[in-house]
Amino acid sequence: MEQKHVSTSSRRDLSLTVGDFGPIEQAKIDLRPIAVFVGPSNTGKSYLAILLYALHRCLGRNRDSQSGPYDSVLRHVRSSKPLGKELEDGFRYWLQEFRSGNSSLTMPRVLAEYVRTVLKEPKGQALDLENELRRCFGVEDLHDLCRNQADGEASTLTLSVPQTREAFSFSYAFSFGLGDSRLQCLVDEPRPALRVTKEHLWPLLELSNFKGTSALRFAFGLLINHIQAEMSKSIPKAYYLPADRTGVMHSHTVVVSTLIQNATAGGLRKFPELPILSGVLADFLESLITIGGSDRSPRRRNDILDLDKHIETDIMRGDVQLDKSATQYPAFGYRPNGWSTDLPLVRASSMVSELAPLVLYARYLLEPNDLVIIEEPEAHLHPAMQAEVTRALARSVRRGLRVVITTHSEWVLEVLGNLVQLSALPQEDRSGLPGEDCALSPDQVGIWLFDQRGEQGGVTLKEVELDAESGLYATDFDDVSQALYNDSARIFNRRQEFQGK
Q1: What is the rounded CA–CA span in Å between residue 235 and residue 230?
Q2: Which is the most buried residue in 156, 163, 401, 454, by most CB within 10 A?
Q3: Measured between alpha carbons, how far is 397 from 420 in angstroms, rounded to an integer?
């Protein structure tokens, strides 16, 4: 059966520009439906992946679960200045029109420009982003994330969101490391026409009048809150699967049990010798607990995450099981095909433990348009299985999932190259070819090489294009392969010389 394919014309690809962040000197990437970070170890692939996660959590759909629905309203009411007579009059008129039944109105120019000014300095979000970066990276001082700490250079981040039918084009620019951190929201055009619905702004309809200054400021706060909520919908909800998933799956019960045992009536006791969990690892552990919640059921209302079934059927040859312990804490197991009992993950192969989290996320958490970041999906997998996992991810990308992976696998890149080549064939001519149901167009795949030869000694990123003749993405793997071949030839020649003596 042909899978549902998401049209590239309806896609919204975010872009990220980074300067002097961690080991990265300069980077500019477009977040295609599947983005791959490749390059030598210790070049910042995970740094950039974690940064993406933090930005999505703070500024995107994840934000809904972190703050109350009227946080920005209260911030505005507490800190806003008088609107001024011209602005008050324009806003009152617009509100009256809104209450009369119209749901999509053109704002007066003075109101639209003031909205743009308020959006430019997001109140409270700068501190939110600071805290999220500290949490995700497990650092106390953001200066620790700056590349040139000795020179006092600032790190800069810009996340750009393209214009959509529902919202304007905008970008968040964040800098830190020199003095106070600063977050700006740069709106590319005023776009005075805003789509406002009664469902989102129902409190405006409940206010009997807007004559009082406080009521008008509250109404304006509601409007700003609504616009920021619509903006956040343009940035997908993100999930992160860190490296060494096998170790975490084997030990997560011990970690959580230790935290519980160390808790007292006065709160969690402090043990200086215990390391602090990074935010991505803490979120991963929390997700495992959430998945095991009593009210959690598989997401079968959409078919995107047949991803879990593809992995279980084509790779694991068995099912991931979810059970409850006596304390109602989730226990995960593996049941091979044909078995009537489960194996604890600690007794299953490392391949099973490595893939089990992806299966569980696909079955219980992920939805279309979500972003999942996976470190080293090839870990503990035979090359043939690496190819199957890559195809499984590509199938989900065709159905709307967005994927970022870090990898050291040439097999992953070869499969992606094949799938892009496959897209050049008409559907009827793909029959019988591996990946016939998961071909990807060239603009759906972005391969980014982390290069250590930056002008200032740092890492820079460059996009790797698909070679039309070889059908491969040319990365540093080719250099390693060539070097090993030359080593083999030199050894062979040396043996010939030795035997000739």
Answers
A1: 10
A2: 401
A3: 13
Residues belonging to the chain = 501
Query: For 363, how many CA atoms within 13 A lie in the half-sphere containing its CB?
Result: 22
CA dist 31 and 11 (Å) reads 11
- What pairing do the DSSP bridges indicate for beta strands 34-38 and 445-451? parallel
Collapsing DSSP states into helix, strand and coil, what is residue 440?
coil
Q: Residue written as tokens 């911030």?
A: 75
Whole-number Cα distances in Å, 311 to 114, 307, 314? 51, 6, 5
Two tokens at 193?
Answer: 């026409």
CA distance 128 to 75: 13
Radius of gyration of the chain (CA): 26
Q: Which of 407, 403, 380, 381 is nearest to 393 (CA)?
A: 403
Q: Which residues pair with 238 in a beta bridge?
A: 371
Task: Single out the residue of 388, 334, 475, 358 nearest to residue 45, CA to CA.
Answer: 475
Question: Hey, is 411 helix, strand or coil?
Answer: helix
Q: What angle do CA 395, 397, 398 make, to 5 degrees?
A: 65
Distance between CA atoms of residues 229 and 208, nearest Å: 25
Sign of CA dihedral 254, 260, 261, 262: positive
pLDDT along the chain (501 residues), means of 10: 45 88 94 95 95 94 59 58 77 75 65 82 83 92 83 86 74 86 80 54 56 72 79 91 85 62 48 64 86 61 70 92 70 91 89 93 91 95 95 94 96 95 92 92 95 84 91 85 89 83 65
Instruction: Using the structure block, give the residue that is written with the tokens 């919204």.
Output: 12
CB contact set of 478 (below 8 Å; sequence gap of 6+) = none
Cα atoms in the Cβ-side hemisphere of radius 13 Å centred on 287:
26
Q: What is the pLDDT of residue 203?
A: 59
Number of Cα atoms under 13 Å in the Cβ half of residue 196: 28
Q: Tokens 């893939």: give the residue.
A: 355
Q: Tokens 């250079």 belong to which residue?
A: 153
Q: What are phi and psi for residue 177, nearest 5 degrees?
A: 120, -25
Q: Tell me the residue type at 423.
A: S
What are the C-alpha distances in Å from 353 to residues 48, 330, 344?
25, 15, 10
Enter the CATH code of domain 1-51+369-501. 3.40.50
Smallest CA-to-CA distance from 191 within 123, 105, 125 is with 105
Backbone dihedral angles phi then psi of residue 187, each to the nearest 5 degrees: -90, 125
| Assigned token pair, 249 | 């799956």
Compute CA distances 329 → 190, 242, 288, 297, 466, whole Å. 51, 22, 10, 16, 47
How many whole angstroms separate alpha carbon 234 and alpha carbon 91? 26
